[in-house]
Amino acid sequence: MPLFERSKSGMIPNQLGHCVIRYARLVATDLTALCQDVAEIRSGRGGRLAVGAIMGAIPECVVPALNRLQAGQPNLSIEVVEDTSARMLPQLDDGRLDLVIGRAAVAADPSKYHYRPLGDEPLSVVVGYGHPSLPKREVKLRDLAGHRWVMYPSHMPLHALLEREMDLAGLEMPDNPISTASTFVTVALLQSSPELISLLPSAIAGLFVRHKMLRAVPVRLKSPSQTFGVVTRKGGVLSPPAEQFIELLGAELVQQVQGRAAQNRKTAKPADKTD
Q: What region holds the LysR substrate-binding domain (predicted)?
């Protein structure tokens, strides 16, 4: 059965040829990864792990698990890629990533992947720390009409979510936003001007709020938080470090849930007692 067809520009792959080429690339990538793992183990470095993660999963999910993994395997070589799920899944397909902490649903064919949910990615509206003091009461999006938005590009999920929030609030999307996919650029811009406002994953926003670089605006968003999880290739074989990392992610999630429950019990007001 032919894999290529003649054309004016030379031989080009047909549909079957494209299929064979795709799987050949996967095999070549797996062999390259095998050679790298063997070389690193022989050199005493202990193998490698390549993880892709969406931004909101990094501070409270990926980083603690990586720290625990590194503590147990100090010779392990680790690579972390931060990007959108849509851009990382092809890297997972090609074998450049061992796993992705993100969303399989954005793929053209989600059935190609194993998906294990981990948690939600709540969002926060933020301004620079130099912004005038904010009221403690709830603020509506309509109250922020005088601000200029720093928002994610139109192909990113957070842009679509902000569009939905604006629509639910009966507002038009801003005509003159500053568009960037960079968290660093977003924070730098917010710090530079009290006129600017943005939407960030709460885990990321909290990191900068604690360091007095941003302020959270008490806006209650109506859209439900998006769920993220561990995405792996069906038919792929996970390395021992990847399997251990997934176990640590699950343990970290359980620990955080227990910690939040304990904190809620601690801060709950005791019932009034009568003599």
A: 43-252
Q: What is the CA radius of gyration of the chain?
A: 23
What is the spatial distance between Cα 220 and Cα 138, in angstroms, rounded to a whole number?
7
Hey, how many other C-beta atoms are within 10 angstroms of the C-beta on 3? Answer: 14
Three-state SS at 118: strand
How far, in Å, CA of 185 to CA of 191, rounded? 10
What is the predicted pLDDT for the residue at 33?
67
Shared-domain flag, residues 77 and 132? no
Write the DSSP symbol of residue 60.
I
Q: Per the structure, how many domains does the chain have?
A: 2
Query: Is residue 25 one of the residues assigned to a domain?
Result: no
Task: At 141, list the tokens.
Answer: 């999006």
Q: Is residue 137 part of a domain?
A: yes
pLDDT, tens only, 146-190: 899 999 988 888 899 999 999 999 999 988 899 998 999 999 999
| Model-wide pTM > 0.70 | yes
Q: Does position 8 have pLDDT exceeding 90, yes or no?
A: no
In a domain, 259, yes or no: yes
Which residue range is the domain that position 194 belongs to? 123-217
Query: What phi, psi does 148 have (nearest 5°)?
Result: -105, 135
**In 3D, which of 223, 205, 203, 207 has the Cα closest to residue 121?**
203
